[in-house]
């Protein structure tokens, strides 16, 4: 991916200084329903999902990313606890995919850290990130179109000991039995929903502790999304920390316990889904003009 070339080619961890740049950013507004907060500030509501067990979180702290010479993430803090679905919402261009690509090792941050279960993954290459238990399903389910479904799944097991791959593939297909009869088909001939299932299954082959799903519902029929929602809930119930990235809030509020809103590279809201369901107007502040795009 040519994005790697946009970043410095060092593998050293970037500086950890990721405080907000302006005094205006310090004007955090805590509300009873959730916390509107400035970039780089830790949550102030005392209900951080990792409270008491930080080693079980995937933690992004003070993450800054530049693409094409322009800053697109300005010091993002976010936590994904194991066993739960966490949602990251934001309008087009907010920086959601950039965050996923950076956590997955496909983009290098200029500042900040990515730590999973206590392991510092900042700046590691994608295969090392995967080996550390973090799997990403990129936007637009990028399966290998010319390879069969079976080969796509086998390739996804490249980081595992060879003898463990068949069992890992079988376990992933068990999650999506729809794939069972499609194993010989070239992945490019699958429907959008089937490709999304294959992309999710590929991520599962690596036996992740954390799963980042970028735009689960993009371009999919509601009936397909309805099929995928309980699967993600079930994966979380099995102990995986799921980060669900969505432009629209309907699916996210159904699944996620905790929600972050990203606006132009900054986290502008952090709170529980319940708080947002009770007070949907909270999103207007966080989303600025983007709330009118929501189909929730
Ligand atoms: N390859 C690239 N080179 C340079 N800038 C990019 C590149 N990809 C994205 N950007 C810019 O980075 C910013 C964040 O984009 P990103 O794709 O992360 O947002 P997003 O929230 O995922 O949006 P969407 O929901 O539309 O996918 C945008 O300003 C975008 O124009």
TrEMBL record:
Its BP terms in the Gene Ontology are: L-amino acid transport
Domain ABC transporter per the UniProt entry, residue ranges? 58-289
The record's listing under CDD domains reads: ABC_TM1139_LivF_branched
Regarding protein family, the annotation reads: Belongs to the ABC transporter superfamily.
Composition-biased stretches, type Polar residues, lie in 23-38
Annotated GO MF terms = ATP binding; ATP hydrolysis activity; branched-chain amino acid transmembrane transporter activity
Q: Which residues form a coiled coil?
A: none
Give the highest taxon in the source lineage: Bacteria
| Source organism (scientific name) | Sphaerisporangium siamense
- Please verify whether the record's keywords include Nuclease: no
Q: Does the keyword Nucleotide-binding apply?
A: yes
Identify this protein by name.
Branched-chain amino acid transport system ATP-binding protein
Q: Where is this region: Disordered?
A: 1-54
């Amino acid at each position: 991916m040519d994005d790697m070339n946009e970043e410095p080619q060092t593998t050293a961890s970037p500086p950890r200084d990721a405080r907000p740049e302006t005094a205006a950013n310090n004007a955090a507004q805590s509300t009873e329903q959730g916390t509107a907060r400035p970039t780089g500030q830790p949550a102030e509501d005392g209900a951080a999902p990792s409270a008491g067990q930080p080693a079980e979180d995937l933690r992004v702290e003070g993450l800054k990313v530049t693409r094409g010479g322009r800053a697109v993430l300005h010091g993002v803090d976010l936590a994904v606890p194991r066993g739960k679905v966490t949602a990251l919402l934001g309008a087009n261009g907010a920086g959601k995919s950039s965050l996923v690509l950076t956590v997955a090792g496909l983009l290098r941050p200029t500042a900040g850290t990515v730590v999973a279960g206590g392991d510092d993954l900042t700046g590691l290459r994608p295969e090392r990130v995967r080996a550390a238990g973090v799997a990403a399903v990129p936007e637009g389910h990028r399966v290998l179109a010319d390879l069969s479904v079976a080969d796509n799944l086998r390739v996804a097991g490249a980081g595992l000991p060879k003898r463990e791959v068949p069992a890992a593939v079988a376990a992933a297909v068990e999650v999506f039995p729809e794939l069972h009869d499609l194993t010989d088909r070239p992945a490019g001939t699958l429907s959008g929903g089937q490709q999304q299932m294959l992309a999710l299954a590929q991520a599962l082959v690596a036996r992740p502790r954390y799963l980042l799903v970028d735009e689960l519902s993009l371009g999919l029929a509601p009936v397909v999304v309805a099929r995928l929602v309980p699967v993600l809930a079930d994966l979380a119930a099995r102990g995986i920390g799921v980060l669900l990235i969505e432009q629209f809030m309907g699916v996210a509020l159904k699944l996620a316990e905790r929600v972050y809103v990203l606006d132009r590279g900054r986290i502008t809201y952090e709170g529980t889904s319940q708080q947002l369901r009770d007070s949907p107007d909270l999103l207007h502040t966080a989303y600025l003009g983007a709330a009118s795009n929501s189909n929730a």
